[in-house]
Every structure is written in C-alpha cells, then in structure tokens.
Amino acid sequence: MAVKSRAAAILIIGVLLGFAIPVGLGVYHSMVRGGESYHLFYSFPSEKARPIIFRYGAGGIAKILDPNTLGVTISLTNVDKKPHMIGFKLEKLPPNIHVHWSGFHTKGFNEEKHLIERVLGPRSRAGVHLTFFIEQAGDKPVIYSGYFKVYDLKTGDTLLKIPIKILNVKAAGAEAGGGGRR
Amino acid sequence: MKRKIIWRKHLVKRVGFLLLGTAMFTGSYGLVMTGMTHLLLAVEAKRFGSVLVNSVPTIHRAMCLRMPIDWVIYRPEFFISRTFGNPLYALIFILIAISFFVGPLFCGWLCPAGLTEHLSRLMPSRLKFSLAGKVDPAPLRYGFLIGYIFVAAPMFRGTPIRSICCSYCNWTWTEHVWEAVFGDFHGFIAWTSAGLITFLLWFLILGIFMKGGRGFCIFLCPAGALMNLAYFLGKHIPFAWKLKVEKEKCTLCGICVRECPTLALNIVAKSEKTLTINHHVCNLCMDCVNLCPTNALKYGKG
Ligand code: SF4
Ligand code: SF4
Ligand code: SF4
To answer: Residues lining ligand 1, judged by CB closer than 6 Å?
Structure first.
C-alpha cells in the first residue's frame, strides 16, 4: 500500500513538474523578449501595421554577454494581386544606433541597398532581419521612435509602414510597453 | 567478439539513417523539404501567374512537427488550410499514426535532432552523467506535453503565459548546427535567452553531457511524447509491432539497462526480478536488441 501511494505521489509530482516547465519557460520568454528579439509577420500592401516596441535593458540571460543589441525578423507576404519589387527604409534613425541588415531565408536580398533584387509575386514571402546596435543609450526614456518602411522600387509608393520604438527601461520615467506578438 | 561486430554494424547503420534523416529534413539542405517547397511554389506560380521562387526552404516552411499540434487543437480550420497548401504540416500526425502500429521508429532512426545521441557517444564517460535506473521520464514527459498544449491556448493571448512552440525548438537548433557545419553561423549569432536555454538543454546538458544523449527527447519534446503515447496505446492490439523481452532468456545482466539512450529499461523487483520496457519513452533504436548477449530482446508483431 505504502509502495503504491509513493508511486502515485512520484507520478503526480513528475506530471506537475513537467507541466510547470513550459509554463515557466513561456513566462520567462515573454518577460525578456522585448529586450532581445522578435519574429513578426506582416502583409503588404497595408494601411495599418502593429507597432514593434523594444524594451532596451529588459533582456534575459542572453544579454549578459551581448547587452547592446536588439533584433527583429520581419516576415512579409505580398497579399496584392500583382507582383512588387520592394525596398526598405528605416526612418528617423539617430546616429547612436547602427543597424545591420540581412535577408531572412530570402533570395536576392541586397544588404547594402536594403532591397530585394527579385520580383515578389502574389503570395510570395520575404524576410528581413534587422539587428540594432545601440551605442550609448543615454538616459532618455525613448531611444528611437521611427518607422520601418516597405516601398515599391518602381513607383516609390509606400506599401507598409511599421512604427518602431526602442524604450530605455533603465532610464528614469521610462514608459512600460509591450511588443508585437509572434 | 561477434557481439562487438554486430554492435558496430548496428551503430554504422544508425548513423547512416541519421544522416539520411538530416538529408531529408534539415534546413535548406533537406531534400524532402526543398523538393516539396519548389513543387508547392511551382503550383503557386501556376495558380497566380508568377514564376517567382523567393523563399529559401526552411524547417518552418516545410516540416515543423510542433506548430501543427497547436493548430489542430486550437485552430483546426487554419491547420486544414495550411496543410492544403503544404501537406508536410500533416507529417506529425502521419508519424503518430505510424507509431500506433509500429512504434516511434522515426525518433530512433530518422529524426535529425537525435544527433546529440551520437555526439554523446564521442564524449568520455567521466564527463557524462547517467540517469539510467534512477528516474522514470514518462510522468515528466507527459506533464510537459500537457503544459506545452496548455500555454498555447488562445485565452492567454496578451498575458505573460505564451506558447513555447517556436521559442524553445530543438529542430531550429539542429538546423543551425548543420548550417554551421556548412559554414553559415547565423544561428549562433544574436542569441535569445530562449534560444540559449534550448541549446544548453538540448545540445549540452541533456545532450552530449548526458549518457544516451536523448534527455531533450524524453523530457522536453512534445512530438516525441505524442508518438510514444500512440505506441503505448497501439501495443495492446495483436498485430502491432513492439519491443518485447523473452523473460526465460534474460539473465538480468543489466547491459541493456545501462546502454538504453532513453532510460526505457529497468530491472525491477516484483515477486521476482524482471526486466521491464517503458513503452512511453523507448524510441526503438534497437541498441538493446543488438547488445543483449542472450538475444532476449526482440522487436516484432504480437
Ligand atoms: S523525441 Fe522529438 S527530438 Fe527526439 S527524436 Fe523524437 S521527434 Fe526527434
Ligand atoms: S542485456 Fe539481455 S540478458 Fe542482459 S538484462 Fe538486458 S535483456 Fe536481459
Ligand atoms: S529499450 Fe531498447 S530499443 Fe528502446 S530506446 Fe532503449 S535501447 Fe532503444
């Protein structure tokens, strides 16, 4: 009898422990991701886009070695009926932030010119990965407030404008802010 | 001596299958994925009148075994529409169905994430810890599966509880490791904390530094848990294939218990000592079958 109840107790503890792991890992990830990196999905052309809000200084263990970078992967789908050739711009970027541009599983991404050298047909996808290197965040509560713009290379029309904010959580009077969702 | 030769041949076979699984499924090198992606894009191009193959195939595009679990439970219509566009999203359910009849052979023989098991063999024993005979992974494994499904529930949107599907994925890491082998280190740059934790658990702590190298599989893989659950349920039907022990042949030498990479074997004292097989974790690698000096373990029908 004692053996049986011991086995049942071990079973219950094991299941509860197993259950707690994904809950804990999920909560940890949502606490720190705003200070580390996002992977977000957008469609273009579109009038509206949910903003990307970083929380510089709120990252987790990965930021111990690499505290000054933030990253975002923006996956884009062409939902138009016609093909587009697209380029990208980051607007209102201050001099204390350097950005490294790279394609994310995307052919023909030009890292220097920030454009895709191939035509994106309807339903085609492309991805851009931006790494922000922040030099001297200072003590202002907002380090960057600008836009990531997707535009048509032929017509110059804006196809999507995503607001991006980098908040400095360590600065006095910093706003609290969430981010986009995956 | 003969046993050693059998064992070596078996290992060569398993590594061969692992490389085959990698060639089939991993990253931009995966033949199945690349082929499938190009086929789908060609179909799309025909349908939409453009001939523009732009995505590079990735594990996410073609063969995720985790996301479809959440989709089926919480967004079945989305699952159907995605799978209509890319049939490989149904792969996990095909594997579960196969496991019902013949067990999780995919885990033991083809899954590229099983790479850690073979790397763990190269690690000197004194650097590894062993959990053999010390824990039963099944409760933790199923608890994890329940939690994995729970945190993906739509009701938690906007709360700190969130899906861990993509953030703690060992297949993404398998892809990164192989990409690094081919000279592309992007997966090792810009770590996230979730990524770092996954790498530490899958590759290091529960991987190459754990005897057997399959800690992530037996504790933290929802796809593997579902396949083993199917195997466990299926083993009760007479024509299903399963691993069995012939008690009269077993001398209880314990070799198989020590070597089983998934902690599935135990010698327990009931009325008498017997060898037990835990079908909730065994991945049918057949190591025990090939190591047993008396051929007491068999994989077969009935
Ligand atoms: S348990 Fe998961 S990671 Fe391990 S072999 Fe099976 S499917 Fe692959
Ligand atoms: S190796 Fe064979 S004889 Fe030894 S305990 Fe395992 S099944 Fe029994
Ligand atoms: S019980 Fe045998 S077949 Fe199953 S995982 Fe262990 S060694 Fe492999």
So the answer is: B 107, 111, 113-114, 170, 217, 221, 223-224
Cross-chain Cβ contact A13/B55 below 8 Å: no
Same domain, A49 and A128: yes
Handedness of CA B70, B76, B80, B82 (dihedral sign): negative
Q: For residue B156, report the phi and psi dihedrals to the nearest 5 degrees.
A: -90, 0
- Are residue A28 and residue A39 in the same domain, yes or no? no
Residue A182 lies in a domain: no
**A47 phi/psi in degrees, rounded to 5:** -75, -35
Q: Is the pTM of this model over 0.90?
A: no
| Distance separating alpha carbons of residues B152 and B159, to the nearest angstrom | 11
- Give average pLDDT by consecutive 10-residue segment, chain B, 302 residues: 89 94 73 67 62 51 83 95 81 96 97 94 96 93 98 94 93 84 75 93 97 97 98 94 96 95 92 93 97 96 84
Same-domain pairing of A56 and A141: yes
Domain count, chain A: 2
Q: Residue A107 is nearest to which of B50, B54, B161, comparing CB atoms?
A: B54
**B contacts of A26 (beta carbons < 8 Å):** 151, 160-164, 167
Q: What value does the CA radius of gyration of chain B take, rounded to a whole number of Å? A: 20
According to DSSP, the residues that pair with A110 across neighbouring strands are A115
User: Do A145 and A161 fall into the same domain?
Assistant: yes
Q: Which residues line ligand 3 (CB under 6 A)?
A: B 243, 260-262, 264-265, 277, 282-288
Contact call for residues B297 and B287 (beta carbons, < 8 A) = no
Would you call A17 and B136 a contact, using CB atoms and an 8 Å cutoff?
no
- Complex confidence, ipTM: 0.89
Domain interval for residue A170: 35-177
Whether residues A161 and A75 share a domain: the answer is yes
Q: What element of type H or E holds B142? A: helix B137-151
Instruction: Mark whether A22 and A75 lie in a shared domain.
Output: no
Within a domain: A87: yes
Q: Do A104 and A163 belong to one domain?
A: yes
**Residues A29-42: pLDDT tens digits?**
999 999 999 989 99
A143 and A171 part of one domain: yes
**Non-local CB neighbours of B179 within 8 Å, separated by 6+ positions:** B27, B28, B185, B186, B187
- Spatial distance between the Cα atoms of A162 and A130, rounded to a whole number of angstroms: 13
Kindly list the structural domains of chain B, giving each domain's residue range(s) and its CATH number in brackets, ordered by start. Answer: 2-234 (no CATH), 241-301 (3.30.70.20)
Query: In angstroms, how far is CA A32 from the centroid of its own chain?
Result: 12
Quick one: which of B244, B246, B252 has its CA closest to B286? B244
